[in-house]
Specification:
By secondary structure, the chain is mostly beta strands. It is 11% helix and 39% strand. It contains two helices and seven strands. A hairpin with a 3-residue loop joins strand 6 and strand 7. InterPro entries: Wnt, Wnt_C, Wnt_CS.
């Protein structure tokens, strides 16, 4: 939460000031969570079973504000029924994107295939009074990239 204030008065003078708490934007919250995630510390339970300590000796002990984890995330690149992951094999990707839909990231650096496919879809649809829609079938070729 952050404090936001507004001045009231003649010609913008601050004769009366009203302040309130305001939630951060969704983007700000997301950025902070991502930063916490990127700096997360792997921990193990100490011998007394009451405390946690960092897995590596060179890592500082976590504070109450640090994000910690005890198990590694599952590998979502490969099919794993136990965790409900279908894997990314044969998923469509975008080779021009560096985001999560990009071929490098989505295909887990396994590579991808590129093919031209014939796409048939409804087009030039029009509404016929009452209660009918008539469409033509249009064909086009589309370049599709799929993860190996």
């Amino acid at each position: 939460m952050r404090t936001v204030c507004k001045c009231h008065g003649l010609s913008g003078s601050c004769a009366l000031k009203t302040c309130w708490k305001k939630m951060p934007t969704f983007r700000e919250v997301g950025n902070r969570l991502k930063a916490q995630f990127d700096g997360a510390i792997r921990v193990i339970i100490s011998n007394d079973g009451k405390n946690i300590m960092p897995e590596g000796k060179t890592i500082k002990p976590p504070s109450e504000y640090d994000l910690v984890y005890s198990d590694n995330s599952p590998n979502f690149c490969k099919r794993n029924r136990k965790v409900g992951s279908l894997g990314t094999q044969d998923r469509e990707c975008d080779p021009n994107s560096e985001g999560v839909g990009g071929c490098d990231l989505l295909c887990c650096n396994r590579g991808y295939t590129t093919r031209e496919v014939l796409v048939r879809e409804n087009c030039k649809c029009r509404f016929i009074w009452c209660c009918d829609v008539q469409c033509e079938i249009c064909e086009s070729t589309k370049v599709v990239h799929r993860c190996l």
